[in-house]
Design brief:
The chain is of the alpha/beta class. Helices cover 30% and strands 23% of the residues. It is built from 11 helices and 12 strands. It has an 8-stranded mixed β-sheet, sandwiched between helices. Strand 4 (66-75) and strand 5 form a beta hairpin. Helix 4 (113-124) packs across helix 5 (129-142), helix 5 (129-142) crosses helix 7 (161-173) and helix 7 (161-173) packs parallel to helix 8 (191-208). The relative contact order is 0.13.
Length: 337
């Protein structure tokens, strides 16, 4: 599908926070698209700006110190960044929904499951309370909760982590949104439940025809779910392409390092591969050059002076690195390390 038909277009997004009287960007110059019915996975270590980017789309940044500083977030051509809180409330839950990282804190502990499901449906439909409750029970059944007639009267603490996550999914899909944002939807779950939740999300996505923007650091989830992958590091997109090329022909040294960190079943090693160092904090973000330079095994002297731009190495595969011949100024021919 062409770029002109993108459901969500994020253009040059800059989001940041006021810390001690100084404004620091957590997301800087991020651009990518999500097409209808497409699954886009945004990957990177903790602190790379993935969740801040997703909260920017929903306009759920902390009001006391967070703000979208620059850029556009176009949903069906409408810039969400320009909408008032009242206008965004009409969009949230109906057109765009979000599954948050930790279902125990995302669900209100003093309200029943049924009340929290009913609330979404009542806010965005003209159905009666009886019709809404019937739909809530059916939604719980749709996400694999068999005793849904009882669960609607229970509280979050009475459910397991997997069941709470299923409830979150039920709330998110209640109004059949065009776009579902899932922020680390399986992080707090054990491996068996993770697989069940991913299988459920794939089924719902296929059945409903939703687009999904999934935030994760788990490359196993990416391989299972993604059509397209956006790799973020220190608030910037460093590589993006379809899932096959990211796994079989990664370009950016950071993407390669992430893939090298995955344990391989056929190899017996005494020590797992790791990426040295840590993601720079907001206060210590490099002001010049590549943000990955201090951790990069392929770093060159110019990497500290030249700001690499995101450019295509070939059609549909973009990378932010001076090692490659791309559409960016100052780039070199491809060098493999």
């Amino acid at each position: 599908m062409s770029k002109n038909h993108a459901l969500l277009e994020i253009k040059d997004l800059h989001t940041g926070f006021d810390i001690g009287g100084e404004f620091h960007h957590a997301v800087k110059g991020v651009s990518f698209d999500v097409n209808p019915k497409e699954v886009v996975c945004v990957v990177g270590e903790s602190g790379c700006g993935k969740s801040v980017m997703s909260l920017s789309v929903m306009k759920l940044l902390p009001k006391h110190n967070g703000k979208i500083d620059k850029g556009e977030i176009l949903f069906n051509g409408k810039n969400l960044a320009d909408l008032s809180e009242k206008e965004m409330n009409r969009v949230r839950g109906k057109d765009i929904s979000m599954i948050f990282q930790e279902p125990m804190t995302a669900l209100n502990p003093v309200l029943t499951i049924g009340f929290q499901l009913d609330e979404v449906l009542l806010n965005h439909s003209k159905a009666s309370k009886e019709q809404v409750r019937k739909k809530s029970i059916q939604l719980l059944k749709d996400v694999g909760i068999s005793r849904s007639e009882q669960v609607v009267h229970e509280y979050p603490h009475q459910l397991s982590g997997g069941m709470r996550q299923r409830v979150m999914i039920a709330i998110a899909i209640a109004c059949e949104p065009a776009l579902l944002i899932a922020d680390e939807p399986t992080t707090a779950l054990d491996v068996t439940v993770q697989a069940q939740i991913l299988e459920l999300m794939k089924k719902i996505q296929d059945d409903k025809g939703m687009a999904v923007l999934m935030i994760t650091h788990d490359l196993g989830v990416v391989a299972e779910m993604a059509d397209k992958v956006v790799v973020m590091y220190a608030g910037q997109v460093v590589e993006q392409s379809d899932v096959d090329r990211i796994f079989h022909d990664p370009k950016h040294p950071y993407t390669r390092a992430l893939l090298d960190s995955i344990p391989k079943m056929e190899e017996r090693v005494d020590e797992l591969n790791t990426i040295k160092g840590i993601v720079p904090s907001l206060k210590n973000m490099p002001q010049q050059g590549c943000r990955f330079v201090d951790r990069c095994p392929s770093a060159m002297p110019e990497c500290k002076q030249i700001d690499p731009q995101l450019g295509e190495t070939n059609k549909g595969h973009a990378v932010r690195c001076l090692l490659y011949e791309t559409s960016q100024p100052g780039a070199k021919t491809e060098v493999r390390s």
